[in-house]
Automatic annotation (TrEMBL):
Superkingdom of this protein's organism: Bacteria
Enzyme Commission no: 3.1.1.45
PANTHER family for the chain: CARBOXYMETHYLENEBUTENOLIDASE HOMOLOG, CARBOXYMETHYLENEBUTENOLIDASE-RELATED
UniProt KW Repeat keyword: no
Protein name: Carboxymethylenebutenolidase
Domain Dienelactone hydrolase stretches: 57-286
EC supergroup of this enzyme: hydrolase
Coiled-coil segments on the chain, per record: none
GO molecular-function term, one example from the UniProt record: carboxymethylenebutenolidase activity
Keyword terms of this UniProt record: Hydrolase
Length: 288
């Protein structure tokens, strides 16, 4: 999980502006120019997915029109499925993917689980998340991940001849690792952005799952996360090397925990667009 003391203070949830679509190309010297220029209309649906633990609410996105596309599972951050993550799902689908964004806390409450502004500096606000976070366990995540990948594969828009990608934000980072481990035959790309708890001293530590996976990794680390524990990136690099898994582990200098999620106090648009461009490059390569 992500530590509360490293989260930004105020979080609100504005809609993604059209301006950001053009920033990705500048972020990596044109790396995302093709994807950013190939946007297409998107279908968005609220869906329910049966899991061994109940019925999960989620949002599904895919390009409009005839065709089949590779699938991507997006694990949101600690505040779960909400408008800003719907915007991410829509944007990713417009780049040519079938995208599923589930509600992390479906066992306790339907999304959005937090309405309006949320302040991590306020103990009362933080307390709202405590019982919700307790519903997300390693074992439950494994069951959910299998159900979500199967759901994506069952969609008529999904190109099942191509592999699946998974990305996670904040506490969604460990969930992305677990997904790759429980569905190694399907997951070919894993991306995490300011992921919390990727390396722990527990037997359930996500980094211990790397040898079970067959994916390529993109690990985008927040500057203040790295300063809090600079050994994490090195342990991850060592684990990837030992497992023979290709990986890019990068600390985003000056970018604080949560920098990729619009609406957060530390949102950093240029750094967020750089991360987005790296994500598209990973999927273009690994999900081909």
């Amino acid at each position: 999980m992500c530590d509360d003391d490293i989260h930004p203070g105020l979080v609100h949830d504005p809609r993604l502006s059209r301006r950001t679509f053009g920033l990705a190309a500048a972020a990596l010297g044109g790396l995302a120019a093709t994807a950013a220029g190939a946007q297409s209309p998107v279908v968005e649906k609220d869906v329910e997915i049966k899991t061994p633990d109940g019925v999960a609410d989620a949002a599904l996105f895919y390009p409009q029109g005839k065709g089949k596309w590779p699938a991507v599972l997006v694990w949101p951050d600690v505040m779960s499925l909400r408008p800003v993550f719907r915007d991410m799902g829509r944007r990713l689908a417009a780049a040519g993917y079938v995208v599923l964004v589930p509600n992390l806390y479906y066992r306790a409450k339907k999304a959005p689980v937090i309405e309006g502004t949320f302040n991590f500096a306020n103990p009362d606000d933080r307390a709202k998340l405590t019982p919700l976070r307790a519903t997300v366990t390693p074992e439950g995540t494994d069951r959910d991940a299998v159900a979500y990948v199967a759901f994506l594969d069952a969609q008529p828009q999904t190109n099942k001849g191509r592999k699946v990608g998974v990305q996670g934000y904040c506490m969604g980072g460990p969930l992305a690792f677990r997904t790759a481990a429980v569905a190694p035959g399907r997951i070919a790309a894993v991306a995490t952005f300011h992921g919390g708890g990727l390396v722990t001293d527990q037997p359930t530590s996500p980094h211990l799952l790397i040898p079970k996976t067959h994916a390529e990794y993109l690990i985008a680390v927040a500057d203040n996360d790295d300063k809090q524990d600079p050994t994490v990136k090195d342990k991850l690099k060592a684990a990837f090397a030992a497992a023979g898994r290709p990986a890019k582990v990068e600390v985003y200098a000056g970018a604080a925990h949560g920098w990729t999620v619009k609406g957060g106090q530390v949102y950093d648009e240029p750094a967020a667009e750089k991360a987005w461009a790296e994500l598209l490059a990973l999927y273009k390569k690994a999900l081909a």
